[in-house]
Specification:
The complex is a heterodimer. By secondary structure, chain A is of the alpha+beta class. Chain A is built from 17 helices and 18 strands. In chain A, the strands form four sheets. In chain A, strands 1, 2, 6, 7, 8, 9 and 16 form a seven-stranded mixed beta sheet that branches. A four-stranded antiparallel beta sheet of chain A has the order 15-10-17-18, with helices on one face. Chain B is α+β, with helices and mostly antiparallel strands. Chain B folds into two domains: 103 residues, Roll (Ubiquitin-like (UB roll)); 170 residues, Alpha-helical ferredoxin (Fumarate Reductase Iron-sulfur Protein, Chain B, domain 2). Chain B contains 14 helices and seven strands. Chain B has a five-stranded mixed beta sheet with strand order 2-1-5-3-4. The two termini of chain B are 26 Å apart. At the A-B interface, α3, α4, α11, α14 and α16 of A face α1, α2 and α4 of B.
Amino acid sequence: MAEYETHDFDVVIIGAGGAGLRAAIEARSMGLRTALVCKSLLGKAHTVMAEGGVAAALGNVHPEDNWKVHFRDTMRGGKMLNNWRMAQLHAQESPDRVRELEEWGALFDRTKDGLILQRDFGGHRFARLAHVGDRTGLELIRTLQQKAVADGIEVFMELKVLRLLHDANGTVSGLVGYWRPSGEFVAFTAKAVVVATGGIGKSWMYTSNSWESTGDGHAMSLWAGADLIDMECVQFHPTGMVWPLSVRGLLVTEGVRGDGGVLRNSEGNRFMFDYVPPMFKDETADSEDEADKWYDDHTAGRRPPELLPRDEVARSINSEVKAGRGSPHGGVFLDIATRRTAEDIRRRLPSMYHQFKELAGVDITTEPMEVGPTCHYVMGGVRVEADSTATTVAGLFAAGEVAGGMHGSNRLGGNSLSDLLVFGRRAGIGAGEFASGRNGPVTVDHAQIDAAIAAATAPFDREGGENPYDIQQDLQETMQSLVGIIRTGSELEEALGKIEVLEERASRVSLSGGLRYNPGWNLTTDLPSMLTISRCTAMGALNRKESRGGHTRNDYPKPEADMGTVNFVERIPDPGAAAAGVGGTPSVRSITVTPEPVPVMPDELKALFEEAS
Amino acid sequence: MAEEIIRNTASGEVTMRLWRGDADGGEFAEYVMPAQEGEVVLDVIHRVQATQAPDLACRWNCKAGKCGSCSAEINGRPALMCMTRMDALPPGESVTVAPMRTFPILRDLVTDVSYNYEVAKRIPPFEPRPKMADEVLAGGYRMQQIDVERSQEFRKCIECYLCQDVCHVIRDHEENKTAFAGPRFFARSAELEMHPLDVNDRRELLQKEQGLGKCNITKCCTEVCPEHIKITDNAIIPLKERVVDASYDPVAWLGRKILKRRKRTPVEATADAPATGPAAVQPELEVHGIPAPELGIAAMVGAPSGDVASASATGADEAPPE
């Protein structure tokens, strides 16, 4: 019988990025005993790396902007695969969520009239992104963190959650994990649990994501019986650093392009003019002259093609490099130096200036940057009910990147931070109401806790087994080369085979050292999540026989009408009975995938698209 | 201290001397790694973990200088491991990485920074003035860019706590931690005090409970700040001036507190708080710099040390790490 400490709360939120913090603030405001559990220190979550801004139709720069235009942009950006209700709520509520941040102390950049300034970004018809230079994520997380501290929310930092617990009825009732500093185990009982664990990027070799993005919330929800949707829809951000190798994948904000930066190939051509898809032809400039006029006056010309949605730009860069017109280190050139004054660049893009100066020795006020696609964001995720963020398992809620549906097959820049705020708050309310309505004692199956702890410590009893770092690296190579930006059926089959082998290897990891702050062990306990979500991504990608948004198939290069109306749903039909995989979790082989219809938009919203065209 | 082991990087190798141990003690362990172009210190540590020491404890997140997790003392200087390029360190010499000295060691390169989170809880939170009529109409507060920029400088802070680490008030005086907020939180208070909307008053607290007077403006914090925030000049000195104003004019201070008026208009604040200026409260006694490499490490290994801060003034003239 393992030893562990116990805690009891009304609502426990896993993840302290923007969505988790916002959920905690809301649940706490309902008078509920609320705990926030996070894998790192408070304030370090991946939200901190968001740069460009938070999208909200405030109309401060373009008064003609409103939620309907934002809704339409979001749906078109997602190639209509979005959950329309999520996209609607998001567009309607994000302005209030942004203004609320200001009431909590956030200091956004200002317009001349003293209101919140908004910046242009890809796929947004109007300048819509409230921002603070290029460190908007830091502003958002710090504001929420400081609000959470002021509200007295209990935070459990550097605590890794291994799995969710449920009661005899299958209702989620808590979780088990361990303190990373001490290695001691801990179990929580809770009337409701919110997963707000962010993304999955760490399973790819070149990613903008931090080590935390191992898909823990996706995986633990799936293991608990929840549905995932559209896990094949992974966004490769068009502009990551490509050199030096050690920072390959590090994000270069879309704000560079929003503020006038342009993409060029090795021949000096602004190649994006050659890649404008029919869907965006009418609203995109067809000459450099026209595009350049647009920056100062949106009525003087149509949008520059550099500001097409991210999936379009990423694929175009990929094509240029493949055609032999790339930069020396395998990217293309992003040029702001010849477009804006050095002073403007340093003021508008201070983080980018320092990032290139200090890590690459490049002065972006005088030289172009070398950039290429980097794994950035997963649009797919835990299937939720839009208004409450309830998952398909009772007692479990999901918000932020871990939730699926909001962004369809491709997310617009700036819509992530607003997503966190809108659905973080809704998750706090949803979980809070569920907790308030849950009667009777909250019970968990102690055998589940013992099993999770036994599985987590098993590698210390083995000798001469696998090195977890080798498995991680092999997984990253597999996902990068076989489940990357351009996919094909045979390679996806190959990836699935490799993932099964990696799962078997991961069950043979052996470890030395103790439980206290042991990164090798921490990684070992992340591997089950990484393998599970990698499998989901590859399976979804194999089944979606079309190209749409963040999912591109070489063997099915076009969008298909019948595929555009279905979500690929992944689930483990009977998690309790599933064959054991690594770390005491259900095996990746027990995951099934089925196409299910996308919710149908009501006529009054459909009309918005007809009006526009 | 063991002799420096010189490796020839031209042969493609780099020697890392990494602190291994916990609260009960430890030692530097050496790891020889193949050198790779363009790497930062954190890259090499990750390769050590992957190939030689899977249990080497090291805290990090973004590896982009944005989250402030991977603070350490590299060749004796407080710096972010992810922003310290290997090719910026002396060629041919080993690279020494130790945990931050000011905080208790959890394990290897990881320290217990909970002190900072405790201080954060004790700072009176942001409290905005009510919206004016036209702001209610516009749906949001009106502030001018020039007025938000002063606080924005401090909101760049990534909470790496390197400024707390280097601050000699707590670096060598554990007993001061109960009554000293440290540079990070003076910057936080300055940010709130200069916030165009905030009406809370933190000046009495700063003086009586957070030890603002203990700072003697040696600017070590400013030197190590990876965000290049001018903590001493733009946060601490203006705060000291405000605290003096408050204590010399208690009636006015009380009046402000009771009436919940704005402390000052942004224009006033800009006018009377110069970017640089002489120390207002205490004379500048002695300039302490960042400890020189040997000394910093020696002091760290040899547990509770004496007044290392003054001894380490030898490092004062050296440039801060970039």
